[in-house]
């Protein structure tokens, strides 16, 4: 609908229009990327706000983030994962290579609701690993492929665009789009991994009576906003693939 209004208003196909020279598909993809970027900024800002708010709420049990993590690991029978400290803010992560749950400055020694929620979430990944959770295993297998494709995509696309401009041959461009699509696939696979880790964390916090009532609701809100950042990232990756695909198809149609 927005695309139709822009065309009718003269923004497309008019020398003074912002989208002059773009195909309708490319223009639509470009608008989609901008919208997702704005939504992503809003979600990230909201996450920071929610975390800051609940970082000031004392955890009823008085445990630090590190102690919450150790307790959740013990309760799930996981003895081969170590809880460690890592520098930074919200740089928390589980590393299956070193078998460590790494908690950031704002989580490791903090005795807040936010710290407990984040620590439990990262332990949720450790539980996934111990239980052989399929999406996590798939994501781990994709990591080296994604690392390669992310490095190569830009160079392949540049070479492809030059080849397309000089020979009308788009096959190198499509290889570049395929490399970008690998990153999009990784973002999609990441979604169930992150949402499931939060579900495991919240289920344990409740069943172990580590959190109850208002504090549990606060932890749920913090983890929900964190999960939404991954959703936005996946949508952005898909939009990027669509943008380049439409750009290549549009150039081909213009030549016809």
TrEMBL record:
InterPro entries: Zn_peptidase_2 (IPR007395). Keywords: Membrane, Transmembrane, Transmembrane helix. The chain crosses the membrane at residues 20-43, 145-165, 171-193, 230-250. This is Membrane protein. It comes from Alistipes communis. The lineage of its organism: Bacteria, Pseudomonadati, Bacteroidota, Bacteroidia, Bacteroidales.
């Amino acid at each position: 609908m927005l695309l139709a209004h822009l065309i009718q208003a003269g923004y497309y196909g008019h020398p003074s229009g912002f989208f002059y020279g773009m195909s309708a598909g490319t223009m639509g993809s470009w608008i989609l990327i901008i919208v997702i970027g704005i939504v992503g900024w809003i979600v990230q800002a909201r996450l920071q706000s929610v975390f800051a708010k609940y970082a000031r709420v004392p955890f009823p049990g008085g445990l630090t983030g590190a102690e919450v993590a150790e307790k959740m690991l013990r309760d799930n029978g996981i003895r081969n994962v170590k809880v460690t400290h890592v520098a930074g803010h919200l740089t928390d992560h589980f590393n299956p290579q070193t078998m460590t749950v790494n908690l950031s400055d704002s989580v490791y020694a903090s005795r807040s609701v936010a710290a407990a929620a984040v620590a439990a979430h990262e332990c949720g990944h450790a539980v996934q690993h111990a239980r052989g959770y399929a999406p996590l295993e798939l994501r781990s297998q994709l990591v080296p492929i994604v690392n390669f494709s992310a490095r190569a995509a830009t160079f392949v696309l540049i070479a492809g665009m030059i080849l397309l401009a000089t020979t009308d041959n788009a096959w190198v461009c499509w290889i570049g789009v395929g490399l970008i699509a690998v990153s999009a696939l990784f973002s999609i696979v990441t979604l169930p991994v992150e949402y499931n880790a939060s579900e495991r964390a919240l289920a344990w916090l409740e069943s172990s009576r580590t959190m109850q009532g208002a504090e549990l609701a606060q932890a749920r809100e913090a983890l929900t906003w964190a999960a939404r950042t991954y959703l936005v990232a996946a949508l952005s990756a898909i939009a990027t693939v669509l943008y380049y695909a439409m750009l290549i198809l549009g150039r081909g149609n213009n030549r016809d």
